[in-house]
Specification:
Elements (H helix, E strand, L loop, with lengths): L1 H10 L5 E3 L5 H10 L3 E7 L9 E8 L2 E6 L9 H6 L3 E3 L2 H12 L6 E3 H7 L7 H9 L19 H12 L1 H15 L2 H15 L23 H19 L9 H12 L4 H5 L11 H12 L20 H21 L9 H9 L4 H4 L2 H8 L2 H4 L1
Parallel strand pairs: 1-4, 2-5, 5-6
Antiparallel strand pairs: 2-3, 3-4
Length: 379
């Protein structure tokens, strides 16, 4: 019986309207004007381009699903105010809201994030695919998670997948909200969502002058650092030139290997003897030039990391306070059946231990209230 139920669910695909021409916008605007809330998702091409574009917008309103082609030649000036005027239901909204803010300064009126809700219910598998399978017997095709959403035309399987992302969000929200109400945690989720709306306005941070310091670079002491700096810049230049993500030019593992070879004082010819594979033949001459540039660079001329206050050594009183607050947090988490980091992350514990008066700005109100009721705060 269980297998039959699952098969039926798999074969039940939502109806949708694909919008890629200006004359198709009127029914969408009418639906948005009539609805009281909207389920929303986006698809982007971050795995295929140097600078990410939002390619598709999935909207579920008034029992209709609209897939809006954001790469089509049509004005969407009347769309964004309509979306911003209604409560949104999303899953894992952080990335989407930052993308939409950078695209058109979009900011929602209010938000219910089903991922936040699942986390506060301590559901171990809180990804959308897992939640749809657990609650509705639906299995999403994970292959489309890494699809190229900038390709045109989009095939039917990709559009079905995109529509499914918003099809069940209303029902999923209802189930999760009921459970949050039962546990008295709905306000916790709402506080997190309000915070996320504000955080979305930060967009994505531009790489700073130390972005080239990949994992493992802290172990480099000699000429490996200037070589790493040079080949990282080389990779960025190529990625922008051919419009592809940097990791598709050369991965960090390869950059690290070259830098470590240089750091071991191997001859430059030996450092250059790196097997990049045939598909990188055209890149090799410029890579070799970058390595030589690194060899010729004085390590002391490289951008230096500024020593941040939070990375300064903590004094004994601060360390002891951090241990006490962490013990309270862990005890609370076990009692509430929560991931401890949902109450306070390690970096937040450090900030509070250094300056206890900062707790109300570092944490959300519900998080601060929980900790301030514990022994460490009263001592």
């Amino acid at each position: 019986m269980g297998q039959t139920h699952r098969t039926l669910r798999l074969n039940t695909l939502p109806h949708f309207k694909f919008v890629d021409r200006p004359e198709q916008l009127a029914p969408l605007f009418d639906a948005l004007d009539r609805c009281t809330e909207i389920a929303l998702d986006t698809e982007a091409d971050n795995l295929f381009r140097y600078r990410t574009r939002v390619c598709l917008l999935q909207i579920h309103a008034v029992d209709e699903i609209y897939l809006v082609d954001l790469l089509a030649d049509m004005s969407l000036d009347q769309l964004w105010p309509r979306l911003a005027a209604k409560p949104l239901i999303m899953h894992g909204s952080d990335y989407d809201l930052r993308l939409l803010w950078e695209l058109c300064r979009f900011q929602p009126l209010s938000l219910f994030d089903t991922m936040f809700a699942a986390q506060l219910l301590n559901i171990p598998r809180f990804g959308l695919a897992a939640l749809l399978e657990q609650n509705f017997g639906v299995i999403l095709d994970k292959d489309h998670q890494k699809a190229n959403w900038s390709q045109r035309p989009l095939d039917r399987a990709m559009l079905d997948y995109a529509a499914m992302d918003v099809f069940h969000l209303f029902s999923l929200r209802n189930r999760l909200r009921d459970q949050l109400v039962e546990l008295g945690r709905l306000e916790w989720m709402e506080q997190k969502c309000r915070w996320q709306i504000v955080a979305g306005r930060d967009g994505f941070s531009a790489p700073d002058e130390n972005a080239w310091r990949i994992t493992g670079s802290e172990k480099l002491r000699g000429r490996g650092l200037p070589v790493l700096h040079a080949i990282w810049q080389w990779r960025e230049s190529w990625a922008e030139k051919i419009n592809t993500p940097p990791f598709k030019v050369v991965g960090n593992e390869m950059l690290g290997r070259i830098a470590r070879a240089a750091d071991e004082d191997r001859p430059i010819e030996e450092v250059l003897y790196v097997n990049l594979g045939r598909r990188h033949d055209r890149l090799y001459p410029s890579l070799a030039e970058a390595v030589r540039k690194g060899f010729a660079t004085d390590p002391h001329t490289l951008p230096r990391r500024e020593r941040r206050r939070e990375f300064a050594p903590m004094n004994p009183d601060e360390l002891a306070r951090q241990d006490r607050i962490k013990a309270d947090r862990d005890r609370l988490a076990q009692k509430l059946n929560l991931d401890p980091t949902l109450i306070a992350t390690r970096s937040q514990l450090v900030l509070i231990a250094r300056d206890p008066s900062s707790i109300d700005t570092v944490l959300l109100p519900w998080q601060a209230a929980l900790l301030k009721a514990e022994p460490a705060w009263k001592s």
